[in-house]
Write a structure and sequence with these properties.
Layout: E1 2-4, H1 14-27, E2 38-42, H2 49-58, E3 62-68, H3 72-77, H4 84-97, E4 100-107, H5 114-125, E5 131-136, H6 144-150, H7 159-175
Parallel strand pairs: 1-2, 2-3, 3-4, 4-5
Helix pairs in contact: 1-2, 5-7
C-alpha cells in the first residue's frame, strides 16, 4: 500500500501524487498493479470533484476524509473549518470517484450523549462506507486543547460515559456489518 497522509495531502497537485506513485512503482516493479491500495487523506473543505477525479486518474484507489463530527457545534469546538453538510457533500463526491472511501470521526467529545453519537454514526453508516476510523478524543500536552482543558474551559466525558459511547459504537458497527 501507499498512504498519503498527515497534514492535508489533498492540497498537493495530482501530478505530484502521480509522480510519487510512478517513482514507487519504479523502485518496486514487481508490485502488482491490481490490489495495490493507494490512499490519500483529505479534509472536506479541500474536496473538489475535478481534483478527486485527477487523483483517481493519478492512481489513488482510496480516499480517507477527516470528517471528525457531523455536528456543527462539535466541529467548531474541534477547530474544523467545514460544516456537517460540507462533510456529507465531500463523502458524496468521494464515493463518485473511488470505490473505497473512509471517514474519520471523533467521539467522547464534551457534552456528547450516546443518543446524539448514534445519530451521527447512523448518518455516516447510511452512506454505505465500508470503513470508518473512530477515535476517542484525548487531550495531549502541548496542544491548545490541553491549556483550555486545564483552565476548565470544557470537560470530557468521564470514563463510564466514554465507555458507553465506545460500546454504542461497537453495537452500531455490528448492526451495519462492520467489525
Amino acid at each position: 500500500s501507499i498512504f498519503f497522509g498527515g497534514g492535508t495531502p489533498s492540497l498537493m497537485a495530482p501530478e505530484t501524487v502521480a509522480a510519487v506513485i510512478a517513482h514507487a512503482r519504479a523502485l518496486w516493479p514487481e508490485t502488482p498493479k491490481e490490489g495495490l491500495e493507494i490512499t490519500l487523506e483529505a479534509n472536506p473543505t479541500s474536496v473538489e470533484a475535478a481534483k478527486f477525479e485527477a487523483f483517481r486518474d493519478a492512481g489513488v484507489t482510496r480516499v480517507s476524509i477527516g470528517i471528525q463530527a457531523l455536528d456543527n457545534t462539535a466541529l467548531n469546538f474541534l477547530g474544523r473549518e467545514h460544516s456537517a453538510g460540507e462533510a456529507l457533500g465531500a463523502l458524496n463526491i468521494a464515493r463518485k470517484n473511488f470505490t473505497r472511501v473512509n471517514a474519520d470521526m471523533i467521539y467522547a467529545r464534551p457534552d456528547q450523549t450516546v443518543a446524539h453519537w448514534k445519530t451521527e454514526l447512523k448518518q455516516l453508516l447510511d452512506q454505505g462506507l465500508d470503513h470508518l476510523s473512530l477515535y476517542q478524543l484525548t487531550i495531549e500536552r502541548g496542544t491548545p486543547f490541553f491549556g483550555l482543558h486545564r483552565k476548565g474551559a470544557f470537560e470530557l466525558p468521564d470514563d463510564d460515559d466514554a465507555a458507553k459511547l465506545y460500546d454504542a459504537t461497537g453495537d452500531m458497527l455490528e448492526a451495519y456489518g462492520l467489525k
